[in-house]
Amino acid sequence: MNNPVLNVNAMSKDFGGIRALDEVDLKVADREIVALIGPNGAGKTTFFNCITGIYTPTSGDVLIDPSAEGRTVRINGRKPNHVTELGMARTFQNIRLFPSMTALENVMIGTHCRTKASIWGAISRNPATRREEQAVIQRSYDLLELVGLENYVNELASNIPYGKQRRLEIARALATDPFLLLLDEPAAGMNPHETKELERLILKIREKFNISIMLIEHDMKMVMSMSDRIYVLDYGRMIADGTPEEIAANPDVIKAYLGEDHDD
Amino acid sequence: MSETKSMNQQGFLNLFLTAGCDSFPHALRKSFLVAVWFAFLTFPIMVIKVNTIENTVVWHWHKIGYLAVAVFFGSFIWRWLLARKELKKDENREETRIESLLTRVQSHPVLKYLALGVLAAAAAVFPQVFNLYQTNIMISCLLYIVLGLGLNIVVGLAGLLDLGFVAFYAVGAYAYALCNMHWGLNFWFMLPVGAVLGALLGILLGFPVLRLRGDYLAIVTLGFGEIIRLVLENWGEVTMGPSGISSIDRPALFGVKLGVIGSTHYMYYIMIGLVILTIFSVNRLQNSRIGRAWLALREDEIACQAMGIDKMKTKLMAFSLGATWAGMAGVVFAAKTTFINPASFTFWESAIILSIVVIGGMGSIRGVIAGAVILILVPEYLRDFAQFRMLLFGAIMVLVMVFRPQGLISAKRKVYEYKVNTAGAANE
Ligand SMILES: Nc1ncnc2c1ncn2[C@@H]1O[C@H](COP(=O)(O)OP(=O)(O)OP(=O)(O)O)[C@@H](O)[C@H]1O
Ligand SMILES: [Mg+2]
Fold this sequence. Notes:
Low-confidence stretches of chain A: none
Largest sheet of chain A: 6 strands, mixed
Strand order of the largest sheet of chain B: 1-2
CATH topology of the largest domain in chain A: Rossmann fold
Number of helices of chain A: 10
Number of strands of chain A: 10
Shape of chain B: globular
Structural class of chain A: alpha/beta
Number of strands of chain B: 2
Distance between the termini of chain A: 43 Å
Structural class of chain B: mainly alpha
Mean pLDDT of chain B: 83
Largest interface: A-B, 52 and 36 residues
Helix content of chain B: over 70%
Bound molecules: adenosine-5'-triphosphate, magnesium ion
CATH class of the largest domain in chain A: Alpha Beta
Number of domains of chain A: 2
Low-confidence stretches of chain B: 424-428
Oligomer: heterodimer
CATH architecture of the largest domain in chain A: 3-Layer(aba) Sandwich
């Protein structure tokens, strides 16, 4: 059976009197790459914040099904760390790394919820803790290698070039072992060449880990070429969804979004 | 060769004379204004002296002259230091000479053990070489190292500004004093009990308080510290009130009570042991899964939670673990002084411990040790200048904050060992 791994039903979010999200529906299937697009201030980041527990939705349901087998869990109002533990990991639009920790340590943080060394384990360094620690280090290094940061392993995160910081955030999110990876504008601030490489990386991640990926992105070329499906958000309302071709031909979308953007 | 040297000297002189100003006359005017302003501000206390017996006023005009001259030249030095700091901004982020020396010694296999051996030998013979007074000072320095390392977990690693740390210290001390007075419980039994009490109280207090952030947390913990002190002062039936508890037992060696000298030496070695235990534990903790979570929490709470770290649990762990060491140090303190009263646990104590952490270097074990040594030993040896101690303390604070905000010895991240995969293997 092929249940969607993420199923958002009529989710709304109000900030005071402002309705940032208005009865939004969205589904992500297993191993699918879904893009969420929309003009600035449409509510895309708010959507991510609502499904990852940083905000609590005002109404509606957020349902997840990590194995896509029909065992659905409702996660509204869960804490962010709990959501991550359940298997949704994200990156941030305005990069949020841990600046005075090394790249490797940043990724190691991601493994926190999958490991269990306690205070006592840390002080006594018993064999189980040592084994776990070594496995964490190796896995984190492998992830850094995957995203192409093997030359920055022991570099402080704040000293790493901007584009590479975005890749580091992806590695950190992958370390939490997610079934759904949420990327908030991963290509922002990258040049066309870097964007192309990022696109390859995202496709590789899907192949390697067999996970679903949802991304918010303003780069239309990238969105059109790599997404399986696209959702379009405008003023907090979901105005369209469909394959890239359908979206490109949708008059509402062109009016709301692509119209202003496609000229250049 | 000599040409470049004289060039450098000229450059230095130039910088010194015009630092922070457009030109030398500008600098002169600035310094002059500063001197006049200072003279004006300190005029009432420096110059006017009222002789209350003869009801006359004596004017000490020469004093203000000295002051103005000192401030005039001082302002040049101050501006030069600031300018130099700006110039060396990029270098500053690198290690200082002391730091790189320490790292080099630490990473050298032979030198490392040699240095440790020398340190151990020095620590071992210290009470034999120096007199009782010096040993006592050293004991309190070691005590502050333990307290500093404990608070370092809370403030330095987890980034929770705790101004009421002394509360846990007081609880440890009073626990030992009271149990010793009523039931004659001995030091070695109470040491772990003090630790556990500190931890429990840390959890109990941390639960409601750790929802707050930054300044709010600081104020609430400050209040808590004061509450504990007030309780100790006013709950006379139990705590003996302001008069305190006296004749607390010193630790006995295998049931044998030692004399003053013997027990001071014994105390000293106990403290050395405790310091080693603390360094050992904190070092292992800060490079562990938990320690990394603390650092991450300090750096970015939202990202930290989004990476699956339970904020509350992690903060509680840091808070109560810090309190554990304070509790232990409290027991030792009570046993060392054999007399405690609430006056030993004022906010001032928390402030000193916090200064040790901040000045030494947040999150850095070596830094905290350096901070304790400077802030505890230096004032002790400057007793002759007792009236200037606070001034000196303040001056050190200001200087460190201006010129080395990261602390004297900043924390260094561990370099982990991993296996490099052969090209491409990891990607497939
Ligand atoms: N914490 C908040 N409190 C109040 N209003 C908010 C909050 N967060 C977001 N908003 C508002 O919600 C709306 C949607 O913001 P959001 O950041 O989700 O937009 P976005 O689609 O991610 O835009 P961009 O493309 O610029 O990143 C905006 O009008 C914003 O001002
Ligand atoms: Mg956004």
